[in-house]
């Protein structure tokens, strides 16, 4: 009875997880869904092991094998163990992928937060971000142009180049 209650609760929580989608990152949602499906599968396997024990206790093993389609409790236990190992492996893979994404984002932030910039190039790819050019006409606007330059570079995370010979980027 406890196994059935656990199975129902895990199915209800999985349904709620699918309806609400509480995570911002897609990988977090995928990990939570995978974990919930594995929990449901573990409860189903525990129910099969329980039924195997009950049927084989009152009848012979051949009848239990014909009814449930498994030869022993060890087969189900091995499947449960393989599932647990696969969930841990997926957890490690998703953790490594998220660490890679965080490292890549920090590298981009570090690249565009420094004062020295790469010179402009003209072989831009379709997936790349494009540079923005600021223009100012008076010498008094140089401080404003530098402020806009720094602000846009930090917000857009792409190189921003000024078009005045008195400023330092060109």
Automatic annotation (TrEMBL):
Keywords: Membrane, Transmembrane, Transmembrane helix. The chain crosses the membrane at residues 6-24, 31-52, 79-102. This is Uncharacterized protein.
């Amino acid at each position: 009875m406890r196994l059935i209650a656990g199975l129902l609760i895990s199915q209800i929580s999985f349904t709620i997880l699918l309806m609400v989608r509480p995570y911002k990152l897609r990988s977090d949602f995928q990990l939570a869904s995978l974990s919930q499906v594995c929990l449901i599968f573990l409860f189903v396997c525990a129910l099969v092991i329980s039924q195997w024990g009950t049927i084989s206790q009152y009848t012979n093993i051949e009848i239990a094998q014909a009814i449930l389609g498994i030869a022993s409790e060890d087969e189900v236990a091995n499947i449960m163990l393989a599932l647990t190992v696969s969930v841990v492996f997926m957890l490690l893979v998703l953790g490594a992928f998220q660490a890679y994404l965080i490292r890549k984002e920090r590298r981009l932030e570090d690249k565009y937060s420094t004062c020295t910039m790469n010179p402009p190039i003209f072989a831009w790819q379709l997936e790349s971000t494009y540079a923005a050019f600021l223009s100012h006409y008076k010498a008094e606007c140089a401080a404003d142009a530098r402020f806009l330059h720094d602000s846009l570079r930090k917000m857009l995370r792409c190189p921003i180049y000024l078009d005045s010979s008195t400023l330092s980027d060109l």
